[in-house]
Fold this protein.
Amino acid sequence: MHIRNHQILVANKRKNQKRLARKQYSNQPVPMFKPVNIRYEVSERQRALGFGGIGAIHTLAGRLGLPEILDDQLHLLKFHLPYHESDHVLNMAYPPRRIMTGGTCLEDIESVS
């Protein structure tokens, strides 16, 4: 093996080990999915996904206090490192092909078309 190829392999291995190393998060006081101001822009040349309203749904959920209700009612995690229960539930509900967009089972979480 050439020296340069070996150096590339060693560097790639180091990058992968660093990326896969367990992160040491501290206990998070608030959920990771925070409601933020979302701006929608319209352009003649750009096309958006049909699921662009998910940002508006997340803002609505935040204003209704849904994440706080989920965190108060669900006690599944001993530590929030870094996610809360509401982050997991909302993660299953929001993105394309999930519950809010017609998904019917957990397998729909993995399928993206």
Observations:
- Residues 3-20 form the longest helix (18 residues).
- Residues 46 and 100 are 25 Å apart (CA to CA).
- The chain has one domain: 23-110.
- The mean pLDDT is 77.
